[in-house]
Amino acid sequence: MKLTLRNYQTEDDFWRIRAFLRETFELHGRREYNWSAPRLDYWRWHILLNCQDTEQMNNRISIWETDACQITAWLVAEDPGSVFLQTHPAHHSAALEEEMIALAEEELSITRDGLKSLSVWTDSQDSMRREILTRRGFTPGRWTESQWRRDLCDPIPDVELAPGYEVRCLGDASELPARSWASWRGFHPDEPDEKYEGWTWYRNIQRCPLYRRDLDILAVAPTGGIASFSTFWYDDATRSAYIEPVATVPEHQRLGLARACITEGLRRVRKMGATRAFVGGFEPGPNALYSSTLSPEHDDYEQWVKKW
To answer: How far is residue 87's CA from residue 95's CA, in Å, rounded to a whole number?
Structure first.
């Protein structure tokens, strides 16, 4: 079948890609071999707008489609020099994979210290992609994303909350500064407070199509400050939930607060109709939490790196 390659062009492309992700999620047996629709949303409204200060996607996404304009694959640079291949299982072939990786090498690599560099991510069980990457000079990189999952048909155990703490959802707009500050403390524990740039970025989080304030789960300390948080994104089209982000403010760690937030979120999305939940982890600490709170079942998504 002849495929046409083109760059991302219009807003309609975004929503067609989003529909593609929902379709292939089901075709892949409800596994995250491609991104989920919530992850695409989070990339667009948080990573691009808040972390990279750009709305441009036309130079970050390439699309392969049939003569009937059916998307068969697309390639995205999540960060500069770090790309994800997203393919339809009916069109997953060595020739297409080779073409996608070659395009990424040519157009999406970055240059540092006189060397070009590119990271390509792959499921650890995708032997075809791993063989192509090896042949093209890629080697396993530093990072592996463990994609933890839990089916929600089984009972969700209770979590005993530390005395004086409360688990609830985010309040109205007046609580956004506190929510932003907790995020800063949770993800930048070693940074000086002077680097904190304010809270208005959280408005972009709330612009995501699947954002729900009642799924923005918080653990609140006895003093009233936000101590931990876990945001859930429920996609009713696939009846699945994506958890991102999860963190605890340093002085409130080791109290089981993140576990309590995740457990509350799991109960809420199950009541909405979710049948499976996912969360990704890179470090031993978060992975231990996710394995015990969701389940030991997971897939590993590996970083492969080439420098030339």
So the answer is: 12
CATH of the domain spanning 166-274, picked from 3.30.390.50, 3.40.630.30, 3.40.1550.10, 3.30.1330.90 = 3.40.630.30
Residues 6+ apart with CB under 8 A from 6: 62, 63, 65
Q: Is residue 261 within 8 Å of 253, Cβ to Cβ?
A: no
Q: What percent of the chain has pLDDT over 90?
A: 99
Fold of 4-144+303-307: Aminopeptidase (3.40.630)
Is the CB of residue 244 less than 8 Å from the CB of residue 47? no
pTM of the predicted model, to two decimals? 0.96
pLDDT in tens, 100-120: 999 999 999 999 999 999 999
Residue 278 has a pLDDT of 98
**Per-domain boundaries in the chain:** 4-144+303-307, 166-274
Peptide bond into 245 cis (omega under 30): yes
Total length of the chain: 308
Q: What residues contact residue 153 under an 8 Å CB cut-off, 6+ apart? A: 275
Structural contact between residues 235 and 21, judged by C-beta atoms closer than 8 angstroms = no
Supply 245's token pair: 């982000």
The Cβ of residue 147 has, within 10 Å, a number of other Cβ atoms equal to 20
| Location of structure tokens 């972009």 | 204
Q: Would you give the distance in Å from CA 90 to the centre of its chain?
A: 24
